[in-house]
Amino acid sequence: AEVSGNAAADCAGSTLNSFRAQKHYGRGLTIAEFKCKLELVVGSPASCMDLELYTSDDKFVMKLDSDEALLGSYPIDDGCRIHVIDRSGARVGEYEDVSRVEKYEMSATDYEKRPDSVRSFLKRSKVGKFNEEEMLKKEAEQEQKLTEEKAQAEAISVGARCEVRVSGQPNKRGTVMFVGLAEFKPGYWIGIKYDEPLGKNDGSVNGKQYFECQPKYGAFVKPQYVTVGDFPEEDYGLDDEM
Q1: Which of 32, 62, 88, 145 is spaced 20 to 30 A from 71 at the CA atom?
Q2: Which domain of life does the protein's organism represent (predicted)?
Q3: How far apart are CA 176 and CA 226, in angstroms?
Q4: d(CA 35, CA 191)
């Protein structure tokens, strides 16, 4: 703890903690008041503290043993250290191991009854999942989207030649290898083996094989980006590059 007023500085350590802290305190504090402030730093109860003053080169000077005395009445200089001795019976590191601190847990029923909780606020404001009308609307939109995707997917057959047209990307040709629902993301997907290594995988995603092709030749796209038709293989000139 760095003590200042007109400002001496010291570091406080503790018999309960392995760390040092540097803070500023006024010389006008009584030792009793100083202990209360140190309680927040080292974790020892103020009533169970003994304070020792050390020089900047770690030589013992004296004990700060008068609770009524002012901090500034002791020979505290810049760089000196105040060591906290705990007499509470706590073990070393006890106040550092937060896993041993008993945590308060509120039941879901009690939390539901609280008028000042975040959940109560969301309910009153009809936000997110507590807005039933909005949630029903989103569910209807998702259902409609899935229905449209299914219809688009059913119009695409495995083995058909196709062209993938995604805005901002060059058109890519290939063969449809998979049509249906997949585990990696919701909705319907079209698995395509490109004519050239313009894809992202070998027909597998997250360890599941949906179809087989060479690495970098496979890809999965949404049905709306796939056009089926007479699309012969194009020469992208990749074989001419080394």
Answers
A1: 88
A2: Eukaryota
A3: 9
A4: 70
